[in-house]
Amino acid sequence: MSDKAPRGVRLVITLVGKRNAGKSSLINAIAGQDVAIVSDFPGTTTDPVAKPYELLPLGPVTFYDTAGLDDSGEVGELRVKATNKVLMRTDIALVVVDEAGLTSYELDLIDKVRELQIPFMVVFNKNDLREPTEADMDYCRKRGIPFYRTSALESVSVNELKEAIINLAPEEMKRTPVLAGDLFGEGDWVVCVVPIDLAAPKGRLILPQVQVLREVLDCDAVAVAVKEREIEETLSSMKRKPALVITDSQVVLSVAGDVPEDIPLTTFSTLFARFKGDLPSLVEGAGVIDTLQDGDTVLMGEACSHHPVADDIGKVKIPRWIRQYTGKDINFVMYSGHDFPEDIDRFKLVIHCGACMLNRSEMLRRIKECKRSGVPVTNYGVAISKVQGVLDRVIAPFGL
Asked: Considering the chain, what is the average pLDDT of its residues?
């Protein structure tokens, strides 16, 4: 089951520390199988190694074994950069310490993890070689840092370590996040408008649509899926009004015209704006579109890399709609996957996708990074509804 859970709904638990601190051995012991290559030679782990796992009651998680952050040389710098990218999407961090104990390196790493506001614990590994000193444990106690003693090599107290990880997780992570389930009740009808165009993947629906449909069924409501050309006829043939209509953002203007005002309406992307991020902040960010000027640069951020179609939503449609709406000559720069620019302050606005392939921590961290740099941020669906003139209606179901 855990292998099939979407990457974007998994909690990310990352092991960080010096080379040869035993991170690979520890993740193998936790997973109960040889996931990562283990060697006495420092720097064996080159790129982050991901292991899907079911850690109840947290549910599906991904453990990441990372290269040592003390790696050196040109290739070492690339490995460290890859590790830092994983940290940006980490929900829980394990700072793994070897028999040398807490050195200035580990103390700097603890400061880094704290700066990113990642819940973490210190794992004193290799207890078969040396127990942690009282001074090191006191350091953790005085600062309220959870710590644990173990030996990955001898699989000592690994089950107890799993329990400690679970206890470390914030309560929010233990709850199943809601997409739209609070907007309708058992037995209600929910109409999902799903365009089938060039951007639609062949033979399947996109992840946000699948997740919403599944949630409707899990809530014992009735899901009705239609294309945008069929929405008016579908509503007129229904015996009672649906509790909610959810549409793809690309057709929100036409769908809004076909759905009576007394029927709540929103978009898949707007649902994901609160499911993965901070909806009020993203709505506020959309207001900056009104202030864009000639020559401003806008960052288009996507969580996944894909081959663009002729009328790609991020590369073509949204830039075109915003230029038409503002009447300004605006520059648009695209970043895809887990890459996110370090010089965010050069952008006037960040417009992010729905982040279905990111976990909530990474999306919130991106929003926080934008705020820290003084750059407003919004998402695709919210921005589209803004320039199409239907944003107030689309966010009304959330009381905004």
From this structure: 85
